[in-house]
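EI: anyone free to look at a 842-residue chain?
SC: sure, send it
EI:
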Amino acid sequence: MKRTLFSFAVLLLAAFNYASGQDLKLNDLEYFERQGVNVLVYNNLFTGGFNDEKNAGIELIHHGVRTAQGGAVRLSNTPEQWDLVPAISNRKVDPASKAIETGLRYKEYDFDSRVVVTAKGKGVEISVYLDKPIPKTLEGKAGFNLEFLPSQYWGKAYLMDGRPNRFPRYAVSNTVTKPNSEKIKQFKGYVTSDDRGTGKFIDPLPLETGRNFLLAPDEPERLVKITSPDADLMLFDGRMLAQNGWFVVRSLLPAGKTGKVLTWTVEPNAIKGWTREPNIGFSQVGYIPSQPKLAVIELDKKDKPLAKASLYKIGGDGNAAEVFSGKIIPWGNYYKYNYVKFDFSSVKNPGIYYIQYGKFKTNNFLIDNSVYDKITDATSDVWIPIHMDHMFVNEAYRVWHGEPFKEGYRQAPPNTDHFDLHSQGPTTDTKYKALELIPGLNVGGFFDAGDFDIETGSNISVVQNFVQTWEYFKPLRDETFVSQKQRYVDLHRPDGTPDMLQFIEHGTLNLVAQAENIGHMSQTLSNSVLDNYHHLGDAASLTDGLPYNPNLRPYEVAPDGQSSGVKDDMWAFTSRNPGLDLSAATMFAAASRALKGYNDDLSARALQQSKRLLKEATELLAGKPKNDARREGPSADIATNLQLYVSTGEQQYINKFQELLWPGLDRNLNFDLLTALNAIPHMDAAYKEKLRPYVVKYNDYIKGLEKDNPYGVPIGLGNWAGNGGIQSFGTTVCFANKYFPDIVDGSHAFKVANWLFGCHPYHNYSFVATVGATRPKAVFYGNNRADFSAIPGNVAPGVLFRKPDHFENYDDWPFLWGENEGTIAGNTGYLIFGSAFKNLVK
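SC: here you go
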């Protein structure tokens, strides 16, 4: 008993031992800050597509990590991804009163509220105002929520009104079921769960309830105090409904009241004198002796840069000795942090090294001529074959998935909006009726990413990437057994055929089947219902293997065993997009070359579809207005004509290519230059000379990146992190250096490799799963994300920019797809960059 009381006393002491220091200030970037604490108020907004992406509302960046988000009036205890989110009707910043006011509206319920966040000492006061009482249908449902990142809190203690407890590592709290009539509607009428015919939904119960809540009193970096004078604080575990749920602190709004109806005080602890530890960015893979070797060190703006850093070499006896000491080179501020550089290019002796900056020491890395030899092996040997659709995929003792979707794909009904942002238009654009089986589609293709659909646009890019890798670099690597007849894949089992050819074949099989059986390219082959779209597990168990029969009772199987009452079928969304057809024509032309002599029948079919789709798509595009969303523009047409010329040698295609290319380069040099470079082996000397000034202009762009950011690469600032664009940049640099070495220096490609393998903001882990000497990223958003693991060879999207000044890449929470989801298009883009880069290194 004495030990229990002593432990409780220690927790209380820690909880109330707040560091002295400055109050929160409202800064010029329109968020509240003090050293170690940033409180953002609707700097990032909820979206109408995937809705709650865990990236919006009131957010807390606590000692450098975004640990809380989603602060808003919400309509359920633990909101899911497709639950309704409030539209932001207005946002007002008042520096004089140190307050930010935001209007929130749920148009579905004609419900408006205002949230006012005001600096109050070392924390903020959050107040909710209502001009009209809550609608009757939302009484007991509308409340204010703030969500906390589970991976930063599980295992830590909390105090609710002085009662100690601990955040659970796994979701194990209690739930109840309620009639579906009481469930708040979800976005566009979607339903995220299968009630198995019970007519009831699951509703989590609170872990704790009280008025004074202390999160992590045992961890000063994560300690937050929340109090409310007029409403209970309830703690919920959002993972009871969805693996990507967060811990939710929630207070219900009172019924029948107006004016200020709820007040919270939120005080995040700030450790006295805290500064963020330096992030020493370097290549986890290592360096070849002759390349530039530049570490980029990311520093807290209050951290005074040191004068020098050192390089230590680990000897054969296990002892480390300093072999180089160099000056720190200032670069300057970039968004939230200050950056300096450490150049150790003069160190060329092969060996094992680490960087020492003050008291901070990196993990070890290699300098050796072989460090880049295997950078693509995990991607080609493991990640890509695991994502082969319509195949049973085995690895040693492990089955990655059985053969999915044997029952095929049905025609999506007209006027159907899809939760993955696709839609079926007013007609099917095919000869098939709604829900009719479209024959021949359950073959080939690759899972898009963390889900099991075939995104046609991505698969087109994938095959094109495979073909380019094959034609430019002829990788003869054979580590995968692929049998289309058996529909079976076995990893690490050579079968006598280069894997790259088999990948090209597998992707082309599905896309040719679309062109032949649909008549054009589908938008996607995907789920018909949302509750199996977010399926985590074996892809073969996503559906029951039987077509849905509306004449059967729910979940009933027909007496002949050929149909069921389960709504789980896969649909083909077939509204015609001539721009997509044009992209497919490009890919088919290229694939036909690669497949010649290996699968001649498929090669001929691909070329036939290329010519047909080019003709039909060109005619369709000519009849559409220039602002039509289905126009992909002339850039796709440029590439299509080039590929058809290379495949057929027909003059008409190269004439059209030249006609379109030069205006395209004038409009968008960065987008079209790689296509122009790809044409050089097939053109005369005059073509290359005409291209030269464009390469000079591109080189000016490359040099400008050194002034744009401390890493010298094109960093993306959108809602999907920018590794894809950086890889494309690196590939362009490699080919520009190949053909114009007097203009573009190959050293710029090393900056891309450094970025991918650890030299980037937020942390210094390699973005490629398992590729990195000591520290690649550990968790990714894949179809195994609930296991908090990674599929080897996966490439993360990268550091995600959070407005107005924060980069992040979680390595303990895989569920944010914009920073952690490796896609089939992105990973094959890495494959071609890695191949081009290895070629440049040689």
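EI: Residues 1-20, 629-633 have pLDDT under 50 and may be disordered.
SC: 👍
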